[in-house]
Q: What sequence folds into this?
């Protein structure tokens, strides 16, 4: 048996353990034990230094098989069958003796690309029915490779492998998602919904998930034809590579802790969210939370993961609503419905990290009368993608609820009754559904058949028609103003301090037509920072921001438009 240093054992333990894992001490009786200070769980460093056997929970992408030998030293019959199946599947294997006197073996399996641990364990049990469940350490603890045995021995590597080779094999990141058309479009055209630094972080993660090397990421970011690399291209030549390398390494670290959803089990969860997003029973006043949930589901489908990053401004910009409404919508999804979990709170320009909870969706939807029937025919239309609703929806002409109703109607279904639409959009009342259907009819987005009752059909119109409709209703101008305000706030964030929304104030002024002005102080000049900077020129944004702060301190002295 070759010598293994404690540092090498620690390296192997850190490679195979899931992020944040602590070692559980193991006694000679194969039961959990405690150290002299009465602690059962120690950090990996302390567990290795204790000299006792300890166990860790393997990370996603690694499934160890425990081949316990009998008293005569014979391996179980299923062991060779399982090993042969893994080889046929193309899995990378690391085999070693366990360190026991009987000659038991441990087989560490690197699951195939795109498979989760649950997928592999399920398939293995189908191929080798005789394997006991407890011998497949999926979701349960296992001693790290070459760590000390509870009887005092230590295992040895088989097959001529060296410890550096084992470290390289076991550290392979699980999962792979190819670069999507949306990612390539963002690389070419940029993304106005986030800062340039945040966009570089997002694209670095996409390249890491696609197993693209750092050189490919750097080449694309430094290509002058790609607008996504505007920030790094503006840096001095000596600082560009360090910036890109820092982004890429951070993305690798994130992908290790949150592997992309490429396995069948996680894919089924995403498909379930796709089907249930339109039929989840939000109340009548929760139209913005419903649209926010659909937007987050669209992000999850685009990036093929349950963990998505989304800022309040990004959500508000996509839904065509205010930051206050977007904040309330996220709070409703998180606290009232439990549909999302906050993994990491946003800081400065970085959006918060959210995790969708399909188990909570399943718990609620299965209790709805006819819920399962709606799921089987669930239709996720373009409204439930990360691009958001079309700007025509969200104004006084066609409210957000009308857009949700229109997108919930499958264009392949020729006849919908009001009752059927209520099942697809539970957050709307019967009277509201009727009102929105008539508005859609007047806008040329739905038609009604009155021959045998009232049956409604969605009319798919080209984007050019929707754009003209948005211009007529004034929705495009409102969204552009909101987008300009968010863009300015992002640009000023961190330069002039945290940017807050301009406070609303009542005024006693009158409009040019003589009617009283009871909303914002419209008679005193620009009402938002976006309008203020449009008046005074984009090249003077920083000076405009300081002037705006001074004006906010003296509401009666707001600057007049030129």
A:
């Amino acid at each position: 048996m070759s010598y293994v240093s404690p540092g090498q054992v620690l390296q192997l333990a850190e490679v195979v353990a899931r992020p944040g894992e602590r070692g559980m001490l193991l006694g000679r009786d194969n039961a959990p034990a405690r150290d002299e200070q009465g602690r059962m769980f120690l950090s990996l460093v302390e567990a290795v230094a204790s000299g006792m056997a300890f166990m860790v929970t393997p990370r996603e992408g690694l499934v160890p098989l425990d081949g316990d030998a009998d008293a005569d030293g014979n391996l179980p019959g299923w062991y060779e069958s399982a090993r042969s199946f893994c080889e046929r599947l193309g899995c990378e294997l690391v085999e070693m003796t366990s360190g026991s006197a009987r000659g038991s073996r441990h087989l560490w399996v690197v699951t195939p690309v795109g498979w989760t641990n649950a997928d592999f364990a399920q398939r293995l049990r189908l191929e080798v029915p005789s394997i006991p469940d407890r011998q497949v350490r999926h979701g349960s603890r296992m001693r790290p490779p070459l760590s000390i045995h509870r009887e005092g021995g230590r295992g040895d590597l088989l097959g001529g492998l060296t410890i550096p080779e084992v470290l390289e094999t076991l550290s392979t990141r699980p999962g792979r998602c190819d670069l999507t058309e949306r990612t390539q479009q963002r690389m070419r055209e940029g993304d106005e919904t986030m800062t340039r630094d945040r966009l570089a972080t997002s694209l670095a993660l996409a390249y890491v998930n696609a197993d693209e090397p750092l050189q490919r990421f750097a080449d694309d970011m430094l290509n002058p034809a790609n607008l996504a690399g505007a920030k790094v291209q503006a840096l001095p030549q000596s600082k560009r590579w360090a910036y890109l390398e820092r982004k890429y390494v951070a993305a690798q670290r994130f992908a290790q802790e949150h592997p992309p959803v490429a396995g069948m089990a996680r894919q089924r969860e995403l498909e379930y969210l796709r089907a249930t997003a339109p039929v989840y029973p939000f109340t009548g006043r929760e139209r913005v939370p419903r649209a926010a949930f659909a937007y987050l589901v669209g992000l999850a489908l685009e990036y093929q993961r349950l963990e998505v990053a989304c800022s309040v401004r990004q959500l508000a910009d996509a839904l065509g609503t205010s930051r206050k409404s977007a904040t309330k919508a996220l709070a409703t999804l998180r606290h009232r419905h439990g549909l999302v979990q906050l993994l990491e709170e946003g800081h400065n320009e970085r959006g918060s990290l959210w995790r969708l909870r399909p188990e909570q969706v399943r718990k609620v939807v299965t209790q709805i009368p006819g819920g399962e029937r709606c799921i089987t025919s669930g239709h996720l239309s373009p409204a439930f993608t990360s691009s958001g609703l079309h700007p025509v929806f969200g104004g006084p002409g066609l409210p957000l609820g009308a857009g949700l109703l229109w997108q919930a109607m499958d264009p392949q279904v020729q006849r919908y009754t009001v009752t059927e639409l209520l099942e697809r959009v539970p957050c709307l009342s019967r009277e509201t559904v009727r009102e929105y259907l008539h508005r859609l009819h007047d806008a040329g987005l739905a038609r009604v058949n009155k021959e045998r009752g009232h049956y409604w059909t969605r009319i798919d119109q080209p984007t050019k028609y929707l754009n003209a409709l948005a211009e007529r209703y004034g929705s495009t101008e409102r969204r552009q103003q909101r987008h300009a305000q968010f863009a300015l706030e992002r640009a000023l964030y961190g330069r002039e301090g945290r940017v807050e929304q301009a406070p609303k104030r009542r005024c006693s002024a009158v409009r040019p037509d003589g009617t009283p002005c009871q909303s914002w102080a419209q008679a005193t000049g620009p009402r938002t920072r976006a309008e203020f900077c449009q008046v005074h020129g984009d090249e003077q944004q920083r000076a405009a921001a300081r002037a705006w702060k001074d004006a906010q301190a003296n509401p009666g002295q707001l600057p007049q438009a030129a």
Notes: Confidence is low (pLDDT under 50) at residues 371-387, 494-540, 555-562. The CA atoms of residues 53 and 150 lie 5 Å apart. The first helix runs from residue 6 to 16. The first strand starts at residue 23 and ends at 26.
